[in-house]
TrEMBL record:
It comes from the Bacteria. The lineage of its organism: Bacteria, Bacillati, Actinomycetota, Actinomycetes, Kitasatosporales. This is histidine kinase. PANTHER family: SENSOR PROTEIN KDPD (PTHR45569). One of its GO terms (molecular function) is ATP binding. The chain crosses the membrane at residues 380-397, 409-437, 457-478. Its EC number is 2.7.13.3. It comes from Streptomyces plicatus.
Amino acid sequence: MGRGKLRIYLGAAPGVGKTYAMLSEAHRRSERGTDCVVAFVEHHGRSRTETLLHGLEQVPRRELEHRGALFTELDLDAVLARAPRVALVDELAHTNVPGSRNAKRWQDVEELLAAGIDVISTVNIQHLESLGDVVESITGVRQQETVPDEVVRRADQIELVDMSPQALRRRMAHGNIYQPDKVDAALSNYFRPGNLTALRELALLWVADRVDEYLQQYRSEHRVSRIWGSRERIVVGLTGGPEGRTLIRRAARLAEKGAGGEVLAVYIARSDGLTSASPKELAVQRTLVEDLGGTFHHVLGDDIPAALLDFARGSNATQIVLGSSRRKTWQYVFGPGVGATVARESGPDLDVHIVTHEEVAKGRGLPVATGARLGRSRIAWGWLTGLGGPVVLTLLLNTVHLGLANDVLFYLALTVAAALLGGLYPALASAAVGSLLLNWFFTPPVNRITIADPRNILALAIFVGVALSVASVVDVAARRTHQAARLRAESEILSFLAGDVLRGETSLETLLERVRETFGMESAALLERECDVAPWTCAGRAGTGPPVERPEDADVDMPVGDHMALALTGRVLPAEDRRVLAAFAAQAAVVLDRRRLREEADRARTLAEGNRIRTALLAAVSHDLRTPLAGIKAAVTSLRSDDVAWSEEDQAELLEGIEEGADRLDHLVGNLLDMSRLQTGTVTPLIREIDVDEVVPMALGGVPEGSVELDVPETLPMVAVDAGLLERAMANLIENAVKYSPAGRTVLVAASALADRVEVRVVDRGPGVPDDAKERIFEPFQRHGDAPRGAGVGLGLAVARGFAEAMAGTLNAEDTPGGGLTMVLTLRAAGTPAGASPVTTAERQAAR
C-alpha cells in the first residue's frame, strides 16, 4: 500500500474556521461513499462545530493520567486497526501527554500516512517552527507547541482558511470562539486588530510562497520553460553559541521569500583552540536547520572570514547571514571582527545580513583569525619582548642601581614574559641577549665579557636554566593545546560524517563535495581499478579543478584498499590532516558500495517488474486471445456443418462474428507488438511534415459510425510526426473514449494550435478517472475501475503515450468539464526544434 495523502487547513489565528472546514469536507467525502472517520477533533464548546461531528464515525480516544489529572489523546493504535480511507486529526502542532507513543501529534500523523491512510488536519500559522520569533515579536507570546515547516510543506494540499480581523473579532464578541468570561481578555490582548492583521499577512505570504513552489514543480514536471530567476542560497555562519538558532530561523524566512530558496548552515572549526563551541548546542542547531529543510556543514579553517567566504562562493550562495558580534567594546582593539571583515570582502556578488540577537556584547563570538599555535600576534610580541625588552631594561637599570641580584631577577622576569608570549625561541633570544647585557654592564669587571666572581657565574647559569625551562613548558603546553583542539575538531567532523553516512542520506558526490569543502581543495575524486595493471576510472567527482586520471597526478592521494584511492587537487595537505582524510576515504568507499548495492536492487526490481509484466501478459493473452479464437472457431465450424441449413441472415451474422473476432485479434496482436517495440527501444519514427486533418479521420476505422465528432480545422499548421505512429496512437485513444462513453453520447476530437505546438483533444463524457489514477492508466496491463477482461489487455493508452513520446510529443489525461475524461495529445509543429518543450495548460494560463 502506498503512502497516504495529507491535506492541511491553515489559518492565521484560532477561530477562523479550520475545524469547521475540515468537518464539512469530511461530510462531503462521506456522502460520496468515502470511508472517513474522526480520529481526533476538539470542538472547544463551539456549537456549530459540535453539530458537524454528528453523522461522522468517531474513533474512541485514549485516556492517559498525568499529574493526577485525566487527559484524552488520539488513540493511534485504534485508528491503525480501524484502517479508514480518511482520518480527521485536529491541531497538528499539539504536544501529546507524557506516556503517549509519540511526543507530537504530527508524528502520529506521519505513522498514519505511512500506513496508507489519508489525513486531513489543521494548524495555525503561529505554530510553524521558523516563524516562532516573528510571532513572539508581534503578539508577545512565545508558542510552545510548534511543528517543523518541512512537515507542513510536504502536505499534498494546503488550503488557507481566511477571515478578516474585523469579522474574527465579531465572532469572538458573539461568543463563537471562546467562553464569554474569556472574550474581553482575548479581544484586549491576542485578538487585537494589529496582531490579527500581522498574522493574516504571515499566513497569506506563506501560502503564496507554497503556491509558487507548486507551480514551479508542475512546470518542471511538464518541461515548461522557467520564467523566474535562480533560487536564493543562504549561508548561515554559526559560532556554536545560543544565537545560532535565531540566525537559522531568520535565514529560513529569507529563503522562503524566494522561489526554491536553500539554507546552508556552516560551522568553521579552528585549529588553534581559541573557539570553544558547545557540541550539544551544535547538535541542537543541526537538528533545527535540518527540520527547516536546510543542510549543516562542518569545515576546518584558521582564517574564519576567508573560510566562510570560500564556502559561500564554492556553494554559489547569494546571501550570508551572520550574528552581531558577541565581543565586548574593548575587544575591538584586536580587529574589526568577522562580520565587518566578511561584509568588506564579500564583493558585489554576496549580500551580508548582520542579525541582532540577545547575546550581543555578552561574550566573544566568531574570533578574529590569527594563524599559528600561539597566534601570529603573540609570537610577534614575544620576539619584541625578547629582543627589545633587554635593551630597554638595561637603559633603565643603568639609571637606578639595584644590585646584581635584583638585576638578574628583572632580566629573568623579562625572559619569562617573552616565553609566555612567544614560546621557546623568543625566550631563548631573550636569555641570550639578557645574559650578554648582564655580563657587559652589571657583572664585574664591567664593560668586558668576563666574570671575576664565581658566584656571579652560578647566578647567570641559573638565570639561563630557568629561562629555558619556562620557555620549554610554554612551548609544550601550546603544542598540547593545539593537538587537543585539532583532535576535537576532527572528532566533531568525523561524528557528523558518520551520522550522515549511517543514515544513508549522503550520496558519493555530496560526500566528495564535503571533502573538498573541509580541506579547501579545488576538486576531489574517488578513483578505482579492477586490478594492479588495469587503468584507473573515476567513480565520483566534485569540484571545478582539472580531472585526475591517476592518483599520482593529484596533489594529495589517499589509498583505500588495493584498488581504490581518494585524489585531491588544490594544495598539499600537512601530515596531520591525513588522519581525517583517511576516514573520509573509507566512508567514500562505503558510500560507493552502498550505491552499487542500491543499483543492483533497482535492477532486481526491474527484473521483477518484467516478470510481473510477462505474468500479466500470459494471464491476459490466455483469455483475450482465447475468446475471439473460440468465437471464430465456433462460427467456422457452424458454417462448415452439413447438419444445419443456415439462412442467408444466419450466415451473414456468423461471418460478421468471424470478422469482429479477427479484428479483435488484429488489434490485440498489434498492441502487443507495439508494446514490445516500445519496451525494447526499437521504435524509430520516420518524422515528416503532415496535416493533422489527413491522419485523424483514418483513425476512425475501428469505431461505430457516428460515434465520433471531428473538429479539426484545415488551417492548422503542419506537424512533424510519423504518420503511422500518430494514426495508431489516435486510434487507441478514440477507441478507448468510445468504449467508456455512455450510449448516445458522441466523442469529440478537436485540434488547435498553441504557439509552436498543435494540441489534439479526445473528449468523452464517461465516468472519468480520479486524479490519483490519471498516471496509472498509462501503465501497461492497467484497466481502470471494473472494466471486464474482455475489454482488452490494457495496452492501448500505454502504446499511445509511448508513440507520442517517440515523436517528441506528450500525452496527458485531464478532467472533462461537466464529467468525463479528456486525453490531450500535444505534437511538435513543423519547423520547431525537437528539444523544444511542449506547451501545457499551466504555460497558457501563465501567458494570460
